[in-house]
Amino acid sequence: MFCLHVDIVVESEKNVVILAIYFIHWTMYVHTVMLYITTITCSFWKQVCIENFDFQKMELLPYDCFAHILSFTSPQDLCRSSLVSSILQSMADSDAVWENFLPSNYHQIVSRFVTSSLSCSSKKQLFSMLCNPRPIDDGNKIFSIEKRSGKICYLLSARQLSIAWGNSPLYWSWKPIRGSRFEEAAELRTISWLEIKGSINSGMLSPNTLYGAYLQVKIADRAYGLDVLPSEVSVEVGKHKSQGTVCIRSCRKTDTKCSFRFEDEEWSEIDLGSFYTCSNEEVRMCLKEVKGVHLKGGLIVDGLEIRPKHLEKASAYRP
Question: Which PROSITE patterns does the record associate with it (predicted)?
C-alpha cells in the first residue's frame, strides 16, 4: 500500500507539471497576441491623432485663450512645444505667454540691478537674462530665476546677515576671498558665541513653493574648535519652525568617517532647513553654537542662499 501511494503521488505530480507547462505556453501566447494588438492600436492612433492632425486649425483658437493654456506649462515645456510646428513656435515666443513666467514684480526687481537697465526686445529674452545671477541692492544680494521652472532664487551676502559681534575686528575680519561672489566675506577670527542669522520676506519669493536655506561657507586652514560641539540650525516662519544640528568639520577627501564634508579650497553649504511660501511672512534662518565656552575660529561666511528645495546645489553663483 505504501508503494502504491507513492506511485499515485508521483503520477499526480507529473500531471501537475504537464498542466503547468501548458499554462505557461498559453500565457506566453496570450501575451504575444496582446502585444501585437497593442502595437497595432498605438500605430493607428498615432496616425489618427498626430500624423493627420492639422496644426493650421490651431489658428482658429483665440490668441488669448491659447496663451492662457500655455501659461499652465513650464518654461522648459514651452520651449519643447515650440519645436512641434511653426504656429506653436510663434505662439510660444509671444510676450503674453512669457509674461506669466516672469516674477510679478519684475519691473521693480530690474530697477534694483547694480548694472544699467536691461535692454530686451521680448519677454522671452528678458526671462533668459534673468536666469543669469545678477547683483542687486548695491551688490549686497544676487537675484536669479531658475530656467526650468521660473522660480525666484536669492543669495544674500554676509553683510546682509546678522552676525554676533560681526562688526568687531577682534572677532571677525571682512576681506575679499577668492571664489566669493561679493566684494568681501566674513572670516571668524576667534569667538565662543557663534551665531549667524538671516531673514527674508516670503513675499519676495515664488508663491506656493518649498524653499531651502543654505549658508555658503568655507573652512580656513587655521580652523579650530568648530567641531567640538554640533551647531544648531533652524528656519522659522510664523509659528512653524524646522530645526536640527550639524557638525562643522574640515575633512580631507580620504577621510571616510566625515559625515559633513568641506573639501579643500572649495565653498560648501550648510542646509539650515526648509519652509513653504504660502503667505507673506518673515522667514528667519539661523546657525549657532552657543552652548560651549571654548573658542572657535576659521569659519568663512560668503552668504545665505534661498532657492527651491528641488534644485541641486547651485553652481551658477560661483565664477
Answer: FBOX (PS50181)
Domains defined along the chain, listed by start? 2-96 (1.20.1280), 134-308 (2.60.120.260)
62-113 tens-digit pLDDT: 667 767 777 777 787 777 766 666 666 777 777 888 888 889 888 899 888 8
**How confident is the model over 128-139, as pLDDT tens digits?**
899 999 999 999
Per-residue pLDDT at 249? 78
Contact criterion met (CB below 8 Å) for 182 and 139: yes
Whether the CA torsion 128, 131, 134, 136 is positive or negative: it is positive
For the whole model, what pTM was predicted? Answer: 0.74
Distance CA 59, CA 66 (A): 9
Cβ atoms of residues 131 and 146 within 8 Å: yes
Question: Residue 269 and residue 213: Cα distance in Å, rounded?
Answer: 9
Sign of CA dihedral 178, 181, 186, 188: negative
Give the whole-angstrom CA distance, residue 137 versus residue 139.
Answer: 5
From CA 285, how far away is CA 234, in angstroms rounded?
6
